[in-house]
């Protein structure tokens, strides 16, 4: 039987993969179909030996799509369906939660990621791949309980540390004036990709509260992760709840798909079975009885408890003290306001970082060493000689894999300090390079620089049959457009076109060929692409489409009315074009997006007919609703099964 923490972690990862696969499935035809925005055909020529291409080019199962009589985009749908199904089964059926199952789930997501192009190039997709691979270490091989669960959970904890620590550090190393000036949240709630309704209210919050929230962000992302590896349970619980509260606050104010839920799942190894015994209704396993007899006595237990409490309050006081010092926190008793300022320079921070980075590695090495030692002791305590030998063999394999994963993770981790990265052993760089195409580990760093300082940029597409008049706006499913439309709640679904429109507004159409592909598809009213849109203002495709760049701003509580936004026109984003525009054709041809005469591999049969039927059934259902329906059905199944046991 799996430990409670490991079991809940595996169930949670299954749920996240289910959401990711199902969310992507709903968008495959419009994004990757032969008439979609970025046809998968253009990056996946199926002629040739699939096995050779899998090993030498890109590790994706889609190389075998033609062998199944499927076009690549239909193959993507099949992979998403299989991934969703396997995720559902591992979520509800304990016996299927094995290393083999999670390897297959990881391979399926890696397969779609490899051909996902721009629409799958997000940090949370890479994070999900890395977490999914670590789930292979946490799960039992085929059943039962391996001797070294803690090794897999330790790698998950190390991943959480790297994610949070790097996300905090890059905010300062980027030299972004809003992060250094503690004004980042003056813009974040307004400028994030798809805000929730609550973001409007948080944007109206007092300035001192927003500045103090930035300070809290630094503490939670940079300082608190150091508590992940301490041997004091109460400090790990403190770190856990601070991280959870932080992630929940982001969920309430922004639609970041499954990312924040995934981060919450990564926090689970901070707990032990005692912390969640009230959920599982199981008595946590007791530690082996080789502890000194003094600590098992009443006096020893009281002393142990006192030491833990002293350690807890000492660490909390130290954290609060240095937070006050380094951020010049001052409380005004007359106004009840808190004044904050960064009290260190960029040079001082850079110097401190050079000392801190090696310490993070030594901290991890010591923690991993203790975990390995504990696993070795566990092997020795198995009882019979045969059990000890078998347990030791399993431990040796897991320990070797764990050390390898830790070693290659040091390359992206030390990217925060180039000098330290260059001092890593050459063999570590070689290991990392040889495994890079499988995305086993990666560097992270969210919200490096704050966007929307001068207003939230938005690209608005307009169509007309007359250059002089009659321009009507296209509206997307979730991103801001209509000034009176309430910000949506769409998470954990990720509308990938809406997200890329946000990035496009920060740059130019020349660097976003998929946007001109979108315009080309709208000019012929491609149904699969129109499914990704909300309001199509024309019964027939318009003659012209143009793009305008606006700056959007939240309205204020003083404005009144029903509008959530106000906007100012900035400039023309791209000029009016027609479907026969030569410059458009030249641009699309340059990016291999014009010729859509791809070879056909689909062959009529039960498999293709089933996929077509399922697509027709799911097409009218909004993706967030479909995800919610599946999760609720699985939840009802689990509750019913638990009640009948």
Q: How do the strands line up in the largest sheet?
A: 4-3-7-8
- Major sheet: 4 strands, antiparallel
Structural class category = alpha+beta
Could you report the average pLDDT, rounded to the nearest whole number?
Answer: 90
Stretches where pLDDT falls below 50 for ≥5 residues? none
Gross morphology is globular
Determine the fraction of residues in helical runs and give it as a percent range: 55-70%
What percent of residues are in strands? Answer: 5-15%
Our count of helices gives 26
How many runs of DSSP E, i.e. beta strands? 8
Question: Main traits of this protein?
Answer:
four-stranded antiparallel sheet, two-stranded antiparallel sheet, single chain, 7% strand, 26 helices, alpha+beta, 645 residues, 8 strands
